[in-house]
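Q: Structure tokens for this one, please.
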Amino acid sequence: MQEPEEKKIALELLETEQAYVNRLHLLDQVFYRELMKEAKTGKTVPEEVVKMIFSNISSIYQFHAEFFLPELRKRMEDWNRNPRIGDVIQKLAPFLKMYGEYVKNFDKAVELITAWSEKSPPFQELIADIQKRKVCANLTLQHHMLEPVQRIPRYELLLKDYVRKLPPQSPDRGDAEKALEMIFMVAKHSNAAIAEMERLQNLWVVYQRLGLEDDIVDPSNELIKEGPIQKISTRNNSTSEKYLFLFNNMLLYCVPKVIQVGAEFQVHLRMDVEGMKVRELKDTEFPHTFLVSGKQRTLELQARSGDEMNAWIK
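A: Here is the predicted structure, written as tokens:
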């Protein structure tokens, strides 16, 4: 008799989980443990660096090896009597939030491996030595470290497939659909963690370009738009090159620095967005002009094109 489709997918979930636990074992029990042992001798790399590279991999490994894999295996052995995995995956889903920390840390971890491999030949040698072992299958540490980042999307795909192949009357339908919803939320949580990390990184770069002025550096700010602009001087009917940074709460009116050491811009004026008014000006001499008036002062600005002006006004 042909195995039902949903059972094949459940078996695939079990097989990939076994392979995944082996990979986590390699990361936690081989790479992490051996690098930590060497770090304690003080010859290769500080212990703190090793901890930063591997983030919370030990918790992830223990959860999968001691809880999820055994539960899944038990369930598949009993499949003919009780064909369901939805409830087990529901138990798994909340713990997958642990991945947020690992995923958020991933880019930094890879940078640390590169930097310390250059700084410390013994560190590089130890990693190369482990990578030569059969268990590594000719793949680098960085490659193995990518596995946990890719695992949650994999659960989502397998479970979607499983739900799709379930017969309408299956006793597992309700649980499996709920489990899929939970995994979907966790995947979103993990993606949100990556997006938040990227937002903060980009924000930090902007602050560096502005010279890290204390009253401007705030992690909750959101950069909405930036770009060059012409400031119109009504006094002598001329324009001068300026640069704007628009955040959710303030507009920074800046001057590009001639000597680019350190900061790229000097903040000339900071205007609160609250109470600010913006409108287009119909000026025949200076096309694409708009007026920004706030509590602090009013600026007459000229964009390079009509589209650019509209983008700023919007």
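A few notes: Residues 5-41 form the longest helix (37 residues). The beta strands are 223-233, 238-247, 250-256, 265-272, 277-281, 289-293, 298-302.
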